[in-house]
């Protein structure tokens, strides 16, 4: 993985400047102040660009990413208790992992396992940021959930957990979306053989 400045250049080439209200000069200044941590991934804070704006910047086999039609409230999903994002438009994620070993676990089962390993689950915005940096991390039958984000409903959590996978082009996705990166959701109590749980070591801001 390259320096934060190099990673920002790739994000800008992907269209980040068109989906954020921040000036490119401000983003460059933020990237330049970050340390050069080997292997770290540059993440975009949702205040700089919410997930619904970042998702269409994803690409796979020439297809743009999209958000499922029944997730119009994507940007209302916020970090869960215990997940704290740096107070900066851009920050770093270290030791990002797709969590393939947790496939066939439910989100409810995976969260304590991840935290028990002294790791932190990715938010949906961080998952998108990772795939913008490393699009090949999204593979058929090797996709992932981002359970660091949940929607709060009063004192309770909505039962949905965000996930990123590859559309088959069926149902409401439409045939044109086949093979495209897809931001959707799964039930917190359900298990899926093809979804891991993306996590990181620490956040550096």
Q: What does it look like?
A:
The protein is of the alpha+beta class and 205 residues long. The protein has one domain. It is built from 6 helices and 16 strands. Strands 4-13-12-8-14 form a 5-stranded mixed beta sheet. The chain has a 3-stranded antiparallel beta sheet with strand order 1-6-16. Strands 2-3 form a two-stranded antiparallel sheet. Strand 2 and strand 3 form a beta hairpin. The longest helix has 11 residues. It is globular, with a radius of gyration of 16 Å. The two termini are 17 Å apart.
State the gist of this model.
This protein is an alpha+beta fold and 205 residues long.
Summarize the helices and strands and which ones pair or pack.
Elements (H helix, E strand, L loop, with lengths): L3 H11 L1 H4 L4 H10 L7 E4 L6 H4 L4 E2 L2 E2 L1 E2 L10 E2 L10 E4 L13 H10 L3 E2 L2 H10 L9 E3 L3 E2 L1 E2 L2 E2 L2 E7 L14 E7 L7 E3 L1 E2 L2 E2 L1
Parallel strand pairs: 4-13, 8-14
Antiparallel strand pairs: 1-6, 2-3, 5-9, 6-16, 7-15, 8-12, 10-11, 12-13
Helix pairs in contact: 1-3
């Amino acid at each position: 993985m390259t320096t934060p400045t190099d990673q920002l250049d790739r994000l800008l080439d992907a269209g980040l400047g068109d989906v954020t209200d921040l000036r490119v000069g401000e983003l460059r200044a933020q990237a330049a102040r970050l340390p050069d941590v080997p292997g770290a991934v540059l993440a975009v804070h949702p205040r700089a660009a919410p997930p619904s704006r970042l998702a269409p910047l994803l690409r796979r086999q020439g297809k743009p990413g999209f958000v499922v039609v029944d997730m119009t409230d994507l940007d209302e999903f916020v970090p869960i208790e215990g997940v704290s994002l740096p107070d900066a438009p851009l920050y770093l994620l270290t030791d990002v992992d797709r969590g393939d070993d947790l496939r066939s676990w439910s989100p409810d089962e995976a969260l304590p396992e991840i935290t028990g390993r002294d790791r932190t689950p990715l938010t949906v915005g961080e998952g998108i940021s990772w795939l913008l940096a490393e699009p090949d991390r999204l593979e058929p039958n090797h996709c992932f959930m981002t359970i660091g984000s949940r929607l709060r409903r009063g004192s309770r959590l909505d039962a949905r957990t965000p996930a990123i996978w590859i559309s088959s082009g069926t149902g409401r996705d439409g045939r044109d979306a086949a093979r495209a990166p897809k931001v959707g959701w799964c039930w917190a109590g359900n298990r899926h053989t093809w979804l891991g749980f993306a996590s990181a070591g620490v956040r550096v801001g």
